[in-house]
Design brief:
185 residues, 0% strand, mainly alpha
């Protein structure tokens, strides 16, 4: 019975996390398509904040879900996202092609790690199919971002579209978990 209660509490935690991640991504996307269009400083801050937020969200999730040692893919994702945050500070100073290479490489790595986390959680939690798709889509999109770095005119709004799709995946996962919680009561 204790493990059933623990599992239910963790599903509630995941729902809240997924919905929070969706909300933060939606705000990030809105800022990218509005304020950042007129302010390079805001655009730069958004580019640095995105992987930093991912590192924080993965760290909190891993801690809440049994600790870093029990969640190797998330521990690695925290490290990858933290290193990417520092790399993004440098890339922003070098221009959008560098930003696209850093962001793209990060999207590939963090997507594969998210995919690994979702596969590990699959048998214990619902809504992981959306996280599997999100991880796979992230890895694929990252490859395209690296390719776009060599093309003329890469813009923050291209990356914002990626973040918007990620928000949808987190929203779907949170909604499915909420539905399951309400159905089980």
């Amino acid at each position: 019975m204790t493990s059933a209660i623990s599992l239910a509490a963790n599903s509630t935690w995941l729902r809240k996390l997924y919905l929070t991640r969706a909300a933060v991504s939606i705000v990030w996307v809105a800022l990218a398509f509005t304020v950042a269009l007129k302010s390079p400083v805001v655009a730069s801050v958004l580019l640095v904040v995105y992987p930093a937020w991912d590192a924080l969200a993965n760290a909190v999730d891993a801690r809440q879900s049994g600790g870093m040692s029990a969640n190797t893919t998330q521990m690695i994702n925290v490290l990858v996202s933290a290193v990417t945050t520092v790399a993004m500070v440098v890339a922003v100073g070098q221009g959008m092609p560098a930003v696209f290479v850093v962001f793209g490489a990060w999207a590939v790595l963090s997507g594969l790690l998210q995919l690994g986390t979702a596969v590990r959680r699959w048998k214990h939690h619902g809504a992981q199919w959306a996280m599997v798709l999100s991880g796979a889509q992230s890895a694929l999109a990252g490859t395209f971002f690296v390719k776009q770095a060599g093309e003329p005119g890469p813009m923050l709004q291209n990356l914002a579209g990626y973040a918007a799709v990620g928000a949808v995946y987190f929203l779907i996962s949170g909604a499915v978990l909420l539905y399951r919680e309400r159905r089980s009561h």
